[in-house]
Design goal:
CATH architecture of the largest domain: 2-Layer Sandwich
Order of helices and strands: HHHEEEHEEEHHHHHEEH
CATH class of the largest domain: Alpha Beta
Radius of gyration: 18 Å
Number of strands: 8
Number of domains: 2
Structural class: alpha+beta
Oligomer: single chain
CATH superfamily of the largest domain: Phosphorylase Kinase, domain 1
Distance between the termini: 8 Å
Largest sheet: 5 strands, antiparallel
Shape: globular
Helix content: 40-55%
Length: 227
């Protein structure tokens, strides 16, 4: 299949949400949206119409999902097709998984019948220097390291050289270790996890945290809908 095509797929699926700029949160947002009324709408077309009417212009619109701001704490991810439903389902599967709560955006609610939508924690747009500040790593090193661990886990030859000092630093970093564990457990793509716009910055009571805000493109989703 080739890595180039795979990363083209990642770019195609990665046009949903990149997190907010700080100034965007100061803008007004619709206040008439009622999640209970939204849930009671049976058809997908009806849900989409309601979201567009009461939540306004989507923050992000991709090939598989649209993302709307609900309020200053939540966004609504609404699937547009089977690809979006599959990605929603993948994210829903990790709902309430406390082991990974430090690196995953919280899922507050979701469609229990059809996986049409996910209500998720809002996040600010993350910058590469946030990883240095909060994780103590250079984000630019993450791509090669995750690729190394991804291929090792599958018994394949690595494609990129990883500096020994960088590898040692990554091997001993708790956050990176948790991310690698999640990559294995969720069968996520290394290229997806090492894209900056896969991540967001959230403000939690214990302080700022960097979390994955779009983690639905697993190997299974890729093979089923993109390969």
């Amino acid at each position: 299949m080739g890595r180039i095509k795979l990363y083209d797929v990642i770019r195609e699926s990665r046009d949903v949400l990149e997190g907010f700029n700080e100034e965007e949160l100061s803008e007004d947002y619709p206040v008439n949206f009622d999640i209970f009324e939204f849930k009671n709408i049976r058809s997908y077309a009806g849900k989409l119409k309601y979201a567009r009417e009461y939540l306004g212009k989507p923050l992000g619109r991709g090939s598989s999902r649209e993302v709307y701001r609900v309020d200053d704490t939540k966004v609504l991810k609404l699937a547009k097709n089977k690809r979006g439903i599959a990605q929603n389902k993948a994210e829903i599967n990790w709902y309430g998984e406390t082991y990974y709560e430090g690196i995953l955006a919280k899922v507050f609610d979701y469609d229990r019948d059809n996986n049409y939508w996910v209500e998720m924690e809002i996040a600010y747009r993350v910058k590469s220097n946030d990883f240095k500040r909060l994780w103590g790593i250079n984000f630019e090193d993450l791509f090669e390291y995750l690729n190394l661990r991804y291929l090792e886990n599958r018994g394949k030859r690595r494609m990129y050289h990883v500096d020994p000092e960088v590898k040692e630093q990554m091997d001993n970093n708790d956050n990176v270790g948790l991310l690698v564990s999640f990559m294995y457990d969720s069968d996520s793509l290394d290229g997806d996890l090492s894209k900056l716009n896969s991540w967001g910055l959230v403000h939690r009571p214990e302080g700022d945290e960097i979390v994955l805000i779009d983690f639905g493109l697993t190997n299974n989703v890729y093979q089923s809908y993109y390969a």
